[in-house]
Each structure stands twice: as C-alpha cells, then as structure tokens.
Specification:
Elements (H helix, E strand, L loop, with lengths): L1 E3 L11 H7 L4 E3 L8 H8 L4 E4 L8 H6 L5 E4 L9 H6 L3 E3 L6 H16 L2 H9 L15 E5 L3 H12 L3 E5 L5 H6 L3 E2 L2 H7 L2 E4 L13 H5 L6 E4 L8 H9 L5 E4 L19 E3 L8 H19 L6 E3 L4
Parallel strand pairs: 1-2, 1-3, 3-4, 4-5, 6-7, 6-9, 7-8, 9-10, 10-11, 11-12
Antiparallel strand pairs: 5-13
Length: 320
Amino acid sequence: MIVVPDDFPSVFEGSEGHERAKRLGPVRVFTERGADQEAELIRRIGDATSAINIRAHARFSEGVFQACPKLKMVSVWGTGTDNLDLNAAGMRGVTICNTPGVNAFAVAEHALTLMLAVARRVVTTDAEMRKGRWPRELMTQCVGKTLGVFGMGAIGGRLATIARGIGMNVLGWSALGDEGRIRKTGARPASKEEILAQADVVSLHVRLSTETRNFLGRKELALMKPTAIIVNTGRGALVDREALLAALRDRKIMGAGLDVFHQEPLAADDPILALPNVVVSPHNAGQTPEVIRDGLIAAVANIENYLQGKPSNLVVSPGR
C-alpha cells in the first residue's frame, strides 16, 4: 500500500505520477488539510508500507514512525527533508529518498526574479503608478555587482550560471567545501564572512538542519553592506526572523526577496508584509507544470526502485 497523506493543495491526484503509482499496487491519496496534525498524519498513513510526502507541513516525527511500524519507505517530492526526523527514520528502519535537482531551473529563475524585483523596485513602483504617481527613485543595476551564493547544489549552481550571464560576479560557498563544484559554474569559492562582506546580493540555497538554522543571524547581517539584498528560496528558518526584520526596518540592508517563511502560510498581519523593501511570494518558486510533472514522477520512481532493491536518491538508508 502506498499512501499520499498530504496532497493539499492537491497536485498528485489524477497526475501522471498517480497513474504510475497505481501500477505498483493500491494507492490512497488524501487531498484535504489535516496532515499537519501528528495524530491525523498517523491515521492517514495507517498500515501503508510506502508514503509519498508532498508538503513540508506534514511532519514525519519520531512519534509518527513509532506509530506506523509497517511504514518502510518515504519518498519526498522535493529536496528538503527538514520535516522528517531522519534519525528516527533510520532507527526504525525506514528508507528516506528525495527528488533533488528536479526544480533547479525553476527555483533558480525565481531567485533571480526576486533579486531583480527588489533591485529594480518593481513592486513599489508598480503600486505608485497605479495611484497616479510617477516615481523617479534610483534603482540598483546588477551588472558588475557581486552575487554570493550559499549552497552550490543544483539550484545554487544554476543561479550562479544565470547571474554570470547577466554580468554579475559570483562568489560561492559549499557546505561540503566542494570548491571544484563551485568553480565549474564560473563562481569563485569564498568563505562565509567574505561573501557577507563583499556581496551585493546574498542568495540562500543550503539545506535546513540543526547546523544551518539561523545561518544568517544578527552578527552575520551586521557584516553585510547597507545596499545589499537577501534572497531566500530555501527555508525561512535559515535566517533569524527578528534579526532580519530589524535589519530591514532600520535599513541595515537594502531589501529582501522571500519565498519562504518561519510560519506558512504567512499570516495577514505578519510584520514582514508592512515593509516596503521586501518582495514576497508564497513558497511557489518551483511551482511550474514541468516541475510538478517531473517531480511527482521522480517521487514514484523512487518507490519503484526501492521495491526492486535498487533505492535511488537516498537520504536515509537503514543498515548502510
């Protein structure tokens, strides 16, 4: 039995991936909200042996793995696995796979879009003109400026390539210290402190973990130029929320382009929405028809490979 406990908003039901999953056996899909509650997630998983995790609001905690002993494999649609207790999965003999790289082009394009929207004041200028005004504020030109990319995986590497294509200098930082991978994109390897001090734009593409939570805090933000822009399409918790709000309010940095937040959906009264130097989007950087199609198929392919004894895209592999 394969279960999709968190298909809300629904993308899986009726998709090509869904049809492919049916060929592997019974498939149960839940398209209503509720998987963000542990008891409900446990109920939905039930006696399934495999699960496809669609949304990060479904948290596969130690309690979930303990209550679902028949669950032996979870395939994540996407790259992030911060909503899964990986240690508990390994202890309970559960294999975890993800679908890295599928959304790389789409997310990199979105990161570039957020960067340009902030730099060119697109949102505020549009709003002013709709009120009958003719704003003439100076904007930021990106050619010749420096982009600092934290995380040089598929998304970060693609953004580095695009940014160089519009004339930016790129500094790269890899959590694995893989300087060769950085150089392949045409970027120059640099330390965290060097990037923060030199970059005109900082873009975050590192995986959220205990080590990277609050990757940018008050100390790090203080190192940045007052004309710098932060772009975050990774996870909201990579940046200290209060430190970011203070830096933006006090103009310690110029602005931010954010696709991810500490609480999602973002509350209507969230103070980030009151800041004119912030451009926001609803965690939809990878939401294109191509990404959805290819990612869901890849998530099902992980289960196919697992059942054939050849697991792919492993994050946790018990016994290895």
